[in-house]
Amino acid sequence: MNLYFSTAHRWMRCAQSLTIPRRRVDYDMTAANEGTAVDWVIDKVLLGDASIDDMEAEIAPNGTEITNVMLSYAGQFIKDMQPILGDCESAETQAKVGFDKADGRIDFFGRGADHLVILDYKYGHNPVYAFENWQLLFGAFAADMGERTFSLIIYQPRAAKEYVIDEWFLTRDELLVYRERALTRMAQLSRGVKDATAGTHCLYCDHAAECDTLGHEIEVRARTMNDTMDLAYLRELQRMVKTRTSAVEADITARMRSGEYVEGWCMAPTYGQRKLTIDPITAQTILGVDTTKQVARSVAEIERLGVPADILDAITTRPLSGHKVQPVAPDDGHKLFGPPPSKT
Ligand code: SF4
After folding, report:
1. Which of 15, 73, 279, 328 keeps 20 to 30 A from 127, CA to CA?
2. Whether the CB of 10 sits within 6 Å of ligand 1
3. Does residue 14 line the site of ligand 1, with CB under 6 A?
4. In whole angstroms, how far apart are CA 177 and each of 151, 190, 271, 272?
């Protein structure tokens, strides 16, 4: 049985997710692969093996080509990490570590005076939270050398600005409570416990396309829907259906890519935006219209060029564009399938 830190959020709640799926699924892992490639750039730059400028168009070990955008995110990460790195007496990137029966890789960890920082780099757009994040917790269990305090951080450059750095601060006593839970769970899994629980952790589970537990949860919730259902309940149901839908799509994609015929479905080509096949100036001569335009950089892009934040703040504004209903507790992702945990 392989227990990985990166899937701990799932197997801590659902043992069934560890069984071998009947069929291979083919999720779109573009964001994850790009994130791994940015991690690789950061690692090389922090180790002094390359400078950011040298890395454009390089191919990362996972086959992803390094783009300018990725380099700007890597540069921004290194800049944002300065205050945290400055407080650390030692730091390590991409460390392969183990804790009890689980293994994993920590994107970054730093040790200061009695303080341990564990950081994971995410590349998706949807916010991932540090609070009760088992991947970070397992990183802390593995790297723990008796520190008194811990900062667990998710760094996510493509999320909305307020979510780019999400930090959860724990004391040693608090960490030990989670450590005990993790050890108990791993002991249960070793004994062969077979529980199955549906929840947010079903997203990207290899079983989600066929899993009865997830299907049953959706069915029960859809059946008990009535006029008095609140918005949070409906959003939970919507996310479960979305999880199932993306899993079924990934399953059908994998089957068709392996040559299987799936009735009613085909692999239709998708296209990017149209591009000129000649240079814009030649096109301008041929077409008689101006084919170029000057575009202002976004504030985020200007920020990534390394301008001082206080000057940028003084000359930028964020206009109110409207209002949208949202839960009073900001971390509505935590609310799925149960009450939101209180932040410590
Ligand atoms: S889909 Fe959800 S309930 Fe089913 S095995 Fe995966 S994590 Fe467990």
Report:
1. 15
2. yes
3. yes
4. 16, 20, 50, 49
Residue 156, ligand 1, Cβ within 6 A: no
Would you say the pTM of this structure is higher than 0.90?
A: no
pLDDT, tens digit (0-9, with 9 covering 90-100), for 153-164: 999 988 887 888
Please tell me the distance from the alpha carbon of residue 197 to that of residue 212, in angstroms, as a whole number.
10
Please give the pLDDT value at position 336.
Answer: 38
Query: In order of start, what are the domains of the chain with their CATH numbers?
Result: 3-190 (3.90.320), 200-261 (no CATH)
Mutation test residue for ligand 1: of 23, 214, 245, 246, the one with most atoms within 8 Å of CB: 214
H runs (alpha helix) in 151-292: 172-190, 212-223, 231-257, 280-287
Q: From 25, 207, 241, give the residue whose CB has the most ligand 1 atoms within 8 Å, as the site to mutate.
A: 207
| 116, 133, 73, 270: CA torsion to nearest 10 | 160
Over residues 227-245, mean pLDDT: 85
- Residue 155, token pair as written in the block: 């760094």
Distance 215 CA to ligand 1 centre (A): 10
Q: For residue 201, give the ligand 1 atom closest to its CA.
A: 7
DSSP 9-32: HHHTT-GGGGSPPSS------HHH
Q: What is the pLDDT of residue 341?
A: 38
Per-residue pLDDT reduced to its tens digit, 185-224: 999 999 999 999 998 899 989 999 999 999 999 998 888 8
How close is the Cα of 268 to the center of ligand 1, in Å?
A: 29
